[in-house]
């Protein structure tokens, strides 16, 4: 695979909506902020396991300025009125930051409510897996709330060997690549 910073593919959701899945860039800060502000509180809670205020400038930098070795972030976009709008995203973060030899990475996803249940998280997972394999990552780990049955279904349907355990309402998942 070429440089993950250049990653860009077109996909179709179950309802036929065309989306672009691409690497995040430093120029996406305002688009990420707009996307975040458009999320319902329940979606934010499922992602962060708590109420989460407005992202700080530092958080926006962390979300958009990544090295594509220790951290990889993809965004899913639709085109509206000639410009892209971020409707979701996924990331992987090596469990030992800065160590390119680390073969495990934590993954996370956020999908805008209007685009949930359309297969987008599964597509993002497939693309993260492709990039991860090229980076030498062999296992994904994730934590999700037990109530987030949609995300658990994405993991089950991924085709990746899955192990899971539940501790205090949080499901810890590992997926072998």
Architecture, CATH level 2? 3-Layer(aba) Sandwich
Topology-level CATH name: Aminopeptidase
Q: How many H/I helical runs?
A: 5
Order of helices and strands: EEHHHEEEHEHEE
> What is the CATH first-level class name?
Alpha Beta
The overall pLDDT, averaged over residues, is 90
Proportion of helical residues: 25-40%
Please give the radius of gyration in angstroms.
Answer: 15 Å
In CATH, what is the homologous superfamily?
A: Gcn5-related N-acetyltransferase (GNAT)
Give the class from helix and strand content and strand pairing: alpha+beta
Strand content: 35-45%
Describe the sheet with the most strands: 8 strands, mixed
The largest beta-sheet arranges its strands as: 1-2-3-4-5-6-8-7
Low-confidence stretches: none
The count of domains is 1
Shape: globular
N-end to C-end Cα span = 16 Å
The count of β-strands is 8
Structure description:
The chain contains five helices and eight strands. With 177 residues, the protein is α+β, with helices and mostly antiparallel strands. It has helices at 29-37, 41-48, 57-64, 120-134, 149-157, and strands spanning 8-12, 18-23, 71-80, 83-94, 104-111, 139-145, 161-167, 170-176. It is 28% helix and 35% strand. The chain has one domain: 3-Layer(aba) Sandwich (Aminopeptidase), CATH 3.40.630.30. The mean pLDDT is 90. The chain has an eight-stranded mixed β-sheet, with helices on both faces.
């Amino acid at each position: 695979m070429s440089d993950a910073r250049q990653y860009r593919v077109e996909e179709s959701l179950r309802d036929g909506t065309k989306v672009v899945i691409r690497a995040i860039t430093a120029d996406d800060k305002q688009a990420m902020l707009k996307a975040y502000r458009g999320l319902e509180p329940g979606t934010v809670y499922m992602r962060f396991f708590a109420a989460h205020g407005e992202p700080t400038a530092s958080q926006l930098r962390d979300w958009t300025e990544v090295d594509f070795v220790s951290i990889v972030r993809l965004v899913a976009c639709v085109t509206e009125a000639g410009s892209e709008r971020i409707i979701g995203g996924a990331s992987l973060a090596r469990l030992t930051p800065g160590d390119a030899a680390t073969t495990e990475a934590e993954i996370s996803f956020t999908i805008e409510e209007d685009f949930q249940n359309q297969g987008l998280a599964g597509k993002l997972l497939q693309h993260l897996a492709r990039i991860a394999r090229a980076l030498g990552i062999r296992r994904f780990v994730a934590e999700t709330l037990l109530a987030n049955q949609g995300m658990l279904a994405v993991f089950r349907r991924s085709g990746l060997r899955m192990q899971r355990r539940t501790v205090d309402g949080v499901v810890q998942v590992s997926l072998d690549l």
